[in-house]
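Example is below:
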Amino acid sequence: MLNPAYSPGDVPPPSADALAFHRSLPGYAPTPVHDLGGGVFVKDESNRFGLPAFKVLGVSWAVERALREDPGIERLVAASAGNHGRAVAHVAARRGLRARVFLPARSVAARREAIASEGADVVVVDGTYEDAVRLAAAEGEQPGAFELADVGSAGPARWVIDGYATLFAELEGRFDTLLVPVGVGSLGAAAARYGAATGTAVIAVEPDVAACLTASLAAGVPTVVDTPGTAMAGLDCAEVSEAAWPTLRAGVIGTVTVSDAQVVDAMRALAARGLTIGQSGAAPFAALSALDGELRAAVSLDRVLLVATEGPTDPEGYRAAVSNA
């Protein structure tokens, strides 16, 4: 879908505040960009600070900002579909804090266990991701707690977007078009800011059963969609973050939706090229093949960057996907 409100001149510039902080952390290194040939490149976030996803960039910066404002914070609280929660738990342990993470009932056991392995208290909610968000918000009101949300309009959601700017600041060279997975939209907003600053067209990629940004752009206002569930757990979101929405509306040239089956094919194709990428991370590769119509005509594919946001956060599911033809 071509975005009728596309206006990159209205997009705020990327934040440069988090880059120096991330560079100061033990274990920091830019994640690699792989050349797949034919002008297609992949930014591989399957190993970021020892975790299998990009989320720790936003979480670590948001926690740093929060502690600067309130050194009395004792525990972090978050809702997650998996990767965000593990990043919160990991950063909490590094900063000497406790963590509690709320997960929707359809989260897979491997992601729950990974969060618990970082020392967090895991609460499985009998409901959706949005239900988990509401419970985390209530918990975050308790004394000594800080809710680290990547949704909403409050400071933490904005700090998360600022933290993700590091991913794009690491890029060298110029790209014509960038495809990025979008759930609640925080990473997409950081991508849109990079795109507006560099003249790169940014295309958002969503599951066909959780396309809340596509619905919102079509309506011109944030729109809630039904989400029956998808293997792309990190993108299984019913509504766009308030903090991300203005940037997404102005800075994303369009959206592409992909199915679970298309993503499985993409995972296999990437595995054949030596890249171990999970479902959400493989979505941009799937979308590149599905790109057509007015949106395809509006962009150049001479140099394309795909943001592969995660490795196999569900190892069993990954093995089944890439091994079963």
User: Anything to note?
Assistant: Residues 181 and 260 are 13 Å apart (CA to CA). The chain has two domains: 8-54+160-323, 56-151. The chain has a mean pLDDT of 95. The chain is about 40% helix and 15% strand.
